[in-house]
Amino acid sequence: MTIVGMTGDEAVAYAAKQSKVDIVAAYPITPQTIMVERFSKYVADGEVQTEYVCVESEHSAMSACVGASLTGARVFTATSSQGLALMHEMLYIASGLRCPIVMGVANRALSAPLNIHGDHSDMMGSRDSGWVQIYVENAQEAYDWIIMAFKIAEDMNVQLPVSVNLDGFIISHCVEGVDTLEDAVVNQFLQTRKPLFILDPEKPITFGAMCFTDYYFEFKRQQVEAMLNVSGVLDKVCKEYKGITGRNYSVLETFGMEDAEAAIICLGSTAGTAREVARKLRAQGKKVGVVKLWLYRPFQTEEISGVLRHVKALAVFDRAISFGAPYGALCSDVVSALHTFEKSPKIFNVIYGLGGRDIEPSEIEFVFNEALKTARTGVVKESTMFLGVRE
Amino acid sequence: MTSEEKKPGWKSLPMGAAVLEPGSSLKYKTGDWRAFKPVVDKEKCINCFFCWIYCPDAAIVRKEDGIEINYEYCKGCGICAKECPKEAIKMVEEQK
Which ipTM score applies to this complex? Predict the structure, then answer.
């Protein structure tokens, strides 16, 4: 294993290269651009046997990826924000046609106003599209999860597209030392894709046929089943990956949750900052904890509620706004997961970091202290806190 | 397509609505979509094959001695009647 200095985008490109993808069809957009730009350099330098298809938009990119995937190819693409929004209808087609495409998403705010910086609004807007969603904390996790994503996506019991999400600029553009595997090790781990049905002129079949009122529901139910199978497959893949790397991945990661009275749950790089703040507060004797979700879709209700329900107060961090909704996306899911329990934490939503607004350790400390107050008094002062906005 | 047959459930259907049998659209008889049916007056027909060219569904076939309409698939769009230079085709309402 070699440690290489790379940004999150570069780590994704390198992992895709080692995963021996057959086709990449992509369109550039900040802050994802380097994922496909770096990959195109591998193609130009003859370092990969990948067909790189330059398309005129993200909608075309995903369309090309779907077609390619149906021939049995291993397919990779990348996008962010407006690009993801532009390919929105194709996301549902990718999942409906059960294409195990892996997509790197450098999460970026949705316009308007135009903002190129990191928040989760892009992928949150697509959370119903039937894609598996993984959120990473840093470049190392981005590298590891891209490789694992192919194995999860292509599993016979899953056959769903997977997005690996990195905070735009914060992870995508910051250099870290990434512990990389040898090519041969990745090859052995992934092997060639073994598709179920493929487009083959020798054995013609039809994909994407019209489906009337009497069949559509059944195919959606199949997708539900596939989503239900993801966590079992993910556990298996993570266990195997641990065997070759020593790194431990699963649905979520916790810090200090064994005895926490107040906790924060969040996605992405903020978990790292929260963990450092929690470490400092715990040294002062405060019982705080942090839960970081890797797997956001499917939402593992049982496991997540199991980890959360014993705290007295919970702050759910959402790096996206769900306008008009009672809570942000993650908070809504957490509240739903916990609603069947008689005893569950007092919850409040923290909307933060929109448009790449920086989140300071002092701000996270403030939230922990508010949560500890709520844990003591049982009172939630503000059900939704907008952290860091100027009034 | 009969609605009387018990239709398969999600567990047995092919993944992702893939249709595994090639040429299966032949099994879907769209003839019952018709409200009007084209009827050819062979006395007027000059075998120009315009109707065969224009039929969007390939429901008019060329035979040695002229055209034949395949009523199993003809949807009754009326393009053949419209294009016939000899007005040899009339659209007749289907009887219930």
Answer: 0.86
